[in-house]
Structure formats: structure tokens, C-alpha cells
Design a protein that fits this description.
The chain is mainly beta and 310 residues long. Among the domains are: 99 residues, Lipocalin, CATH 2.40.128; 78 residues, Beta Barrel (Lipocalin). Helix content is 0%, strand content 68%. It contains no helices and 25 strands. The protein has a 25-stranded antiparallel β-sheet, with no helix packed on it. The protein is rod-shaped, with a radius of gyration of 35 Å. The chain starts with a strand and ends with a strand.
Length: 310
């Protein structure tokens, strides 16, 4: 014991052990009551610290706990404690060589379950994966895979349900990491329900597919175009091969139909072709096709306000 002050109260207390009576526990004492401020558990031939506990407050409950490892006894795990129960608030897992963080967890709630988990990598220890946790079981709510020098997100997944399977998956690209593909997932297997391919500076939709059935084959495909990304072609798909059943070519500011084709048969060759015209997009020509070669069977040219047969 090292004694200090008028009353010669202890300043340092060491518990000694072994033949050489080297220290086993070292406590630094402080304050009127000389309660512990730092407690170190020592180990090995050199009696370097194994655990360091920084104590604080009236009850001298732990504030920081460090587990030390290796020849230099640099920290391996650092736990910052908080609150009345001194439950963990932040846990940092450090890497051996540089002792830079590898995993950082921010803890919250009564059970101090993780709220955010950051996996760090590389020389700068920039984030590689960020998991935001939520709910009673602290199952995943958002998972971000980060990439590149700036560690901007590459994939963002929003998770939901008991198993926390993905509900939305976004693949990000470019300098601003704006979405490139957005998938809305559904069902037990979390197969895609809607797939949106985004393009351009504003990342407006280029293709929208609504998927259906066990195999989640496309049910509707829309090709979008122009500044407002209004539909250019709409295809309704049907059958095992999901070949087109109806094809609508849209045109003009309002993107009203210009040509409507009803398709049929194995080859999905046209059965009816309707060319539309005018403000109301009433039929101008109707062609009914028939036979293997799909040669015209009936051609109706419509004219006038009431579209009398011409």
C-alpha cells in the first residue's frame, strides 16, 4: 500500500501473489472515502494488465471496462457503461495490430440490446456494413453494405417480419449513390413483387415490372420514357412463358394509346390490331388477322365523328 496525506490513507492498494510477490490486482484510490477509481487485474510473467476497470460515482460502479490482450496489452474490447445499472452503452471490439475498431455497437433499452452495429474494415477502418436494429428482439431493420473510398451505401435492405426477411432491396450506384434498382419483396420466400430499374440523373424509372405467381414471372412490364417518365410501352403478359397478351404503344403528352395489339397463340402473333387516332383516341383502323401467316381477315377503316364504316 502506498499511503498519502495527513491521515496516511491508502492511495494505491496492490494484492501480491506468487514467489516473487508480483502484483495480482492494483487499485488506485481517490476521494475522502478512498474508494477505488481504477482497478487493474494483472497477469503473466510481466504482470501486464489483463482487465482495466474505471470506476465512477458514489457507488463506484464501472464506467469503462477494457479487456487487454497481446504483448503490448493494448485494448481488445472496450465497454462504456452508463445509467444506474451501469449497463453497456457502447461496445468497441478492437483489432490486434493497430487496435483500431473492428466492430462498434451502440446499445439501448432495458436489456441493452444492440441498436446500431457497425463493422469496420481497411486501413481507415471505414464502415463496411451498418445494421440498424429495432424492436423487442432487436432484429435487423435496415442493413447497408458500404463500398468505395467514401464508403457510400452499395446495397440497402429494409427488413420486416418475425424472420426479418427483406421487404425492400435497393442497389445503389454512381457518385451520389442514387438507386439503380429497387425491388419490393413479398411472400414467404421474399420473391420480388415489383422491380423498378432507375436511370438518369434524377434516377427516374426506366422499366417497371409487376411480378406474380410462384415463379414471380412478370405480369405487367412498362417501358417508361421522357422527362416525366410516362409509359411508352405497356405489355400485359400471360401464360407459362409469360409471353405478351396485350401490347399498348403510347404516344403524346398524355401518353394515350396509339396502337393496341391483342396477341394470341403459341407464337403470340397479333390477333387484332387497332390503330387509334385523335383526341379521344377512337379507332381509325381495325385489322382482324387470321391463319398461320396472320393475313388480314377483316379490315375496317373508320371515319368521321361517329366512326362510320368506310
Amino acid at each position: 500500500m502506498s499511503l498519502c496525506g495527513e491521515n496516511k490513507s491508502p492511495l494505491v492498494v496492490m494484492s501480491l501473489c506468487g514467489e516473487n510477490k508480483s502484483p495480482l490486482v492494483v487499485m488506485s484510490l481517490c476521494g475522502e472515502n478512498k474508494s477505488p477509481v481504477v482497478v487493474m487485474s494483472l497477469s503473466g510473467e510481466n504482470k501486464s494488465p489483463l482487465v482495466v476497470v474505471c470506476l465512477c460515482g458514489e457507488n463506484k460502479s464501472p464506467l469503462v471496462v477494457m479487456s487487454l490482450c497481446g504483448e503490448n496489452k493494448s485494448p481488445l474490447v472496450v465497454v462504456c457503461l452508463c445509467g444506474e445499472n451501469k449497463s453497456p452503452l457502447v461496445v468497441v471490439c478492437l483489432c490486434r495490430e493497430n487496435k483500431s475498431p473492428v466492430v462498434v455497437m451502440c446499445l439501448s433499452g432495458e436489456n441493452k440490446s444492440p441498436l446500431v452495429v457497425v463493422c469496420l474494415c481497411g486501413e481507415n477502418k471505414s464502415p463496411v456494413v451498418v445494421v440498424c436494429l429495432c424492436g423487442e428482439n432487436k432484429s435487423h431493420l435496415v442493413v447497408m453494405s458500404l463500398c468505395g473510398e467514401n464508403k457510400s451505401p452499395l446495397v440497402v435492405m429494409c427488413l420486416s417480419g418475425e424472420n426479418k426477411s427483406p421487404v425492400v432491396v435497393m442497389c445503389l450506384s454512381g457518385e451520389n449513390k442514387s438507386p439503380l434498382v429497387v425491388m419490393c419483396l413479398s411472400g414467404e420466400n421474399k420473391s420480388p413483387l415489383v422491380v423498378v430499374c432507375l436511370c438518369g440523373e434524377n434516377k427516374s424509372p426506366l422499366v417497371v415490372m409487376s411480378l406474380c405467381g410462384e415463379n414471380k414471372s412478370p405480369l405487367v412490364v412498362m417501358c417508361l420514357s421522357g422527362e416525366n417518365k410516362s409509359p411508352l410501352v405497356v405489355m400485359s403478359l400471360c401464360g407459362e412463358n409469360k409471353s405478351p397478351l396485350v401490347v399498348v404503344c403510347l404516344c403524346g403528352e398524355n401518353k394515350s394509346p396509339l396502337v393496341v395489339m391483342c396477341l394470341s397463340g403459341e407464337n403470340k402473333s397479333p390477333l387484332v390490331v387497332v390503330c387509334l387516332c385523335g383526341e379521344n383516341k377512337s379507332p381509325l383502323v381495325v385489322v382482324c388477322l387470321c391463319g398461320e401467316n396472320k393475313s388480314p381477315l377483316v379490315v375496317k377503316t373508320l371515319c368521321g365523328e361517329n366512326k362510320f364504316k368506310g
